[in-house]
UniProtKB/TrEMBL annotation:
InterPro entries: CBS_dom, CBS_dom_sf, Diverse_CBS-Domain. Pfam families: CBS. Keywords: CBS domain. Residues 11-69, 78-131 form the CBS domain. This is Inosine 5-monophosphate dehydrogenase. The lineage of its organism: Bacteria, Pseudomonadati, Pseudomonadota, Alphaproteobacteria, Rhodobacterales.
């Protein structure tokens, strides 16, 4: 049964999305307000170009707390070279990738477009229910 489970069935279709030019202060606020650990960063044509994680935000937050001023935009702090998964991918295969990856959230693409976000927690929950 688990071999039939696809990413699109367990991904989160509603999630925080950012663009490169969003002020970092606003991006941090969005992550905090939505209790999100990461947000994919997209270009104007909805193409995935990076991801902003909570870890990426510590630098600008610490700097802002020290200097009492927020500086920079998402592009200055995001992680490029994003590891992503396909919506039609088998969840078992994704779980095997997650075992060796430091990432907690994976953008989900379908036909090259961002359609969801997949967390380790969602994969673990799905596999534990199916097994």
């Amino acid at each position: 049964m688990t071999t039939e489970l696809r990413v699109r069935k367990i991904m989160t279709p509603d999630f925080v999305r950012l663009t490169r030019d969003v002020p970092i202060r606003r991006a941090v606020a969005q992550l905090v307000d939505q209790a999100a650990s990461a947000a994919p960063v997209i270009d104007a044509d909805d193409t995935l170009c990076g991801i902003l994680t909570q870890k990426d935000c510590f630098g600008p937050v610490l700097e802002a707390s020290y200097y009492q001023e927020w500086r920079g935009v998402v592009a200055d702090f995001m992680t490029e070279g994003v590891v992503w998964v396909e919506a039609g991918q088998d969840v078992v295969g994704v779980a095997q990738t997650m075992m060796t990856s430091p990432h907690r959230e994976f953008p989900v693409l379908e036909n090259g477009k961002l359609v969801g976000l997949l967390s380790r927690a969602a994969v673990l929950a799905a596999l534990s229910r199916a097994g």
